[in-house]
Design a protein that fits this description.
With 123 residues, the protein is mainly β. The chain has no helices and 11 strands. The termini are far apart. The model has no long low-confidence stretch (mean pLDDT 96).
Length: 123
């Protein structure tokens, strides 16, 4: 069992930055690829970014590529999402997810989800 707790969301002006954190419980954090998803108002949940178990492989949605950076610290059981140049369309609830395995498989659902943290980028 893995429990995920996100933090770091908030209100920021367009062009600003935020860092999201996702703290995971359990001793097997390093066995999971980790991902970030988001769901904006009236929209379906969408993939944002993911990182392999070792941190050596990262994935980004085209909409955030070049602005967001994902990283992880396996010693702290934490994954981060650095968000720069935020746009109003980035406004959403951001969810952390864990998927058992070394790399993220887009064809497979995540095994665990966090509760989400709200990010609002105002224009």
């Amino acid at each position: 069992q893995v429990q995920l707790v996100e933090s770091g969301g908030g209100l920021v002006q367009a062009g600003g930055s935020l860092r999201l954190s996702c703290a995971a419980s359990g001793r097997t954090f390093g066995s999971y690829a980790m991902g970030w998803f988001r769901q904006g108002p009236g929209k379906e949940r969408e993939f944002v970014s993911a990182i392999s178990w070792s941190g050596g492989i990262t994935y980004y949605a085209d909409s955030v590529k070049g602005r967001f950076t994902i990283s992880r610290d396996n010693a702290k059981n934490t994954v981060y999402l650095y968000m720069n140049s935020l746009k109003p369309e980035d406004t959403a609830v951001y969810y952390c997810a864990a998927q058992f395995g070394r790399t993220w498989n887009v064809r497979t659902e995540a095994d665990y989800w966090g509760q989400g943290t709200q990010v609002t980028a105002s224009s």
